[in-house]
Amino acid sequence: MRYVYGITSALLVGGTALALVTQSPVGAQVAQNEKSEIAKAVPRSGAPESFADLVEQLQPAVVNISTKQEVTLGVRLNPFAGTREPITQEQQGGGSGFLISSDGYIVTNNHVVTGGPRGEQVNEVTVTMTNQKEYRAKIVGRDATSDLALLKIDATGLPFVRFGESSKARVGDWVVAIGNPLGLGSTVTAGIISAVQRNIGSGGPYDRYIQTDTAINRGNSGGPLFDLQGNVVGINNMLISPVGANIGVNFAIPADAAAPVIAALKAGEKPQRGYLGIGIAPVGEDFAAALGLPKDRGEIIQRIEDGGPAAKAGLKRGDVVTKVDGRDVTPQQTLSYLIANVKPGARIPLEIIRDGKAMTVNAVVGTRPPEEELTGSNFDPEEEQTMPDDPKGSADQAIQDGLGMAVQPLTPAIAGSIGVERSTKGLVIAAVGSSSDAGRKGLRRGDVILSANRVPVTTSEALAKTIADAKKAGRTAVLLEILRRGQPPAFIPVRIDGK
């Protein structure tokens, strides 16, 4: 489960939403939330006198998830061998989840099965049923953007639930959450829906939640949020709290958003989302005053990616997009959200205002790149340089030890942000140690390494190999070809190990 303390956030530990099924004595399987069964538990209108019959039907499909992860905390020098060794520690976590099929598929939150500072997949996942039976689970797929994950256990004839239609949920509807908060095991809480499609301001294609006052705490993450018909309408995901515990402002991923992501993961595919290739800003009070437009109507295009879908459609910097395929662009229904939820390849009309005139532009929506690539477009060469305490792998460790710097692959997005040609191939320097030879020679964040010892390098492994080969040959330096914005490439010798 994710927590938001005021304006900061932290992960809670949890999952997703569906509707339950068990196997009859003769082998026929029926969903626990079949209308004929639920009708016995819940009156036709209003809340039941008790949720007991409803919970009895649904609870067996909700599971506890516990995880283990080996995390690298840093490195230490072995004085006897003269080598650096990683310092590791086993971390434990967990949350909730729910079965969506009788053969063991389980939905949960991605952050429940994620460990370490860089979002690594955990090493071990154990699922515990309400009857205390345990299974080792396999991670079928993860999607960080929607914070969803799909697990699989080796079993059959299991109780399960199905996704409902969250679009039919209304403010004021009763909902029931089942999960494993605070290490207490299966726990049931009830409340009402406080808001639907709540935008909490974090941006992105999935910044829309069902808000409830149902008590949710650490460990509820990934657990289902049921309506009174037994449908999973949401997947408990986060809470907002100044104290880190429930105060009645809790959020669930809508089932309508979760279902297609889970279907893609089950099919072994990566979820695809729409993309225009633009940088945008909301039309707030100042933009509205400058443009003569109503406040909070549309978003203004600040940047257009060369050759991207927006550029091909003829959109221009300064255009204000007011509608996407007939849907208004508002602070609650942002342009990023609307486009991301359009199927790639679809041709849609965009209503815009250009130089004070309303017009319509048709665009063919592209496929949204991976989040790490999009993050790269925000690479700021002027940002404070910080050497990572936990290099991602042996190659990164070798570069940090050998050259006193941290590097990362140069993507077209990063190239654009540091002012070099987007077609440039190489490694971009993320940080340089001030006491290293590279630092003394003026290398800095944002410089691009084109080659090492006259061999082109585009991966950390390639640069690490060049360093290793130089050491084997008895050399004490490597020749780096460095490209800096506004300057021609230059060769700079950098001593290995700062010697």
Quick structural summary:
This protein has 499 residues and is an alpha+beta fold. The protein contains eleven helices and 33 strands.
Description:
This protein is an alpha+beta fold. The chain has 3 domains: 1-269, Thrombin, subunit H, CATH 2.40.10; 274-367, PDZ domain (Pdz3 Domain); 381-498, PDZ domain (Pdz3 Domain), CATH 2.30.42.10. The chain is built from 11 helices and 33 strands. It has a 7-stranded antiparallel beta sheet, with helices on one face. A hairpin with a 5-residue loop joins strand 3 (21-23) and strand 4. Helix 1 (35-41) runs antiparallel to helix 2 and helix 8 (394-403) packs across helix 11.
SS-based class: alpha+beta
User: How many distinct helices?
Assistant: 11
**Overall morphology:** globular
Count of domains: 3
Low-confidence stretches: 5-26
**CATH-assigned fold name of the largest domain:** Thrombin, subunit H
- Give helix % range: 10-25%
Beta-strand percentage range? 35-45%
Tell me which CATH architecture of the largest domain applies here.
Beta Barrel
Subcellular location: Periplasm
Domain PDZ: 269-338, 384-486
Enzyme class: hydrolase
Organism: Sphingopyxis flava
